[in-house]
Amino acid sequence: MAQIALVARGETTAFDAVFEQIGPSVFGVVKRVIRDPAQSEEVTQEVMLEVWRSASKFDAGRGSATAWVMTLAHRRAVDRVRSVQKEAERERRVATAEIPFDEVIEAVESSLERERVRRCLGSLTEVQRESVTLAYYRGYTYGQVASLLSVPTGTVKTRMRDALIRLRDCLGVAE
Amino acid sequence: MKLTKRSQLRDAHTLAGAYAMDAVSAPDRERFERHMIGCAECAREVASLREATAMLGTAAAEPVPAGLKERIMAAAAVTRQQPPAAETEPVVLARGTWTRAGGWFRSLAWPGRLALATAGTAAAAVIAVAVVFGIANSSMQQQIDRAQASSQQIAVVLTAQDARMATGTVVGGGTATIVMSHSRHALVFTAQGLHALPASRGYELWLIGPAGARPVAMLPAGSHGMTGPVIASGVRPGDHLALTAEPADGSAHPDTPMMIDMDL
Question: Cβ contacts (< 8 Å) between B68 and chain A: which residues?
Answer without folding.
Answer: 23, 27, 41, 44-45
